[in-house]
User: What shape does this take?
Amino acid sequence: MTVRVLRYDPENEVIPHAIIWRSLRYCTLVIREGQDDLDKYSGASFVIGNDIRFDLRVYRGHIHSEVTVTLYLPEEVRDEQQIAQTISTIIREMAIPVSAVAWRRGLKFHYGKLERAPDDRLRESEARILILKIAASQPGRAASSDKLRQEIPKIFDLSPVDKKMSPSRKREMLWQIVVRNTMSSHTTGTRTIFAQGWARKIPNGLKVTKSGLDYLNSIGFLDLSKSDLTEAE
Amino acid sequence: MGAVSEVPIEPFHRVENPTTQTDQIAKLQESSREIWGQPARGSDQPSVKAYPGPLVSGRGVQFTTEIVPQPFGAPNEARWYWNWTPNVELRQKDGKDFACIGVTSFINCQP
Assistant: This one.
């Protein structure tokens, strides 16, 4: 299934049903500013197929607003099982790891309190998509390894585990090792961004291919028309 | 709609904005001891919306209420819907419907 970006705000009430411990900028580049009765927000609207409409929003007064995004569904979606299935579909189709969901409908909560899942950290499977997103955001859809290392902490909230020093490489933190592995050692694996044709290596970095842009379009990160989906060689 | 928190004893707050939380609205809230809220665009269901917790910094208002928010809030948002949330009242002004909750304490930080 494809996650399509919608250009307009929803014409109905939307209800918060999950909070994801990822920034809005991590989820999509197609961000617009809005305001409703609560406050000003940054957000984006999406549809999966014809049925699943949802919004991602960050209101400036949300707790942990720099590193979380709240998932909203139309108010007519009220069945708890349907809500649970819809949330699962959305995070899967947006390539967001399950560990990133800090709260979802059905879990008990206390107002004003939100904690990150203790096992949530940067893993290689997520790092693959993350570096693809970062490279796609750069001029020429390409990024050096240094640029990736510089940008990742701005977009991904590194956990205490991510920031631990590597036992094998004393000068590097664990997340840096993850990125290094993603970039360098697994080029023959079937699920790497290189093996899937989403990126190709360039000296000391990577460049996103048309196929990679197609993929990022399909998870709602970009909203490029076909004419924009050209690979700048 | 799933498990929810107990009735919060902590305050809620709203942040100053140029349309729905102006200085003038804050004064009305303070004098009437009521918070009003409009429907979302395209909806006919007015609701009061607020952030949980105290107003830590910046301009806005902080309040407490005895009215339990609607269960489908979230850790970062509280809502009180007219017609759905018990004890929320309907107010009308200039032909528009508003949800209304009474407050038990109110601090105006946008005088």
Remarks:
- The beta strands of chain A are 3-6, 14-20, 32-35, 40-48, 52-59, 69-74, 101-104, 142-144, 199-202, 205-208.
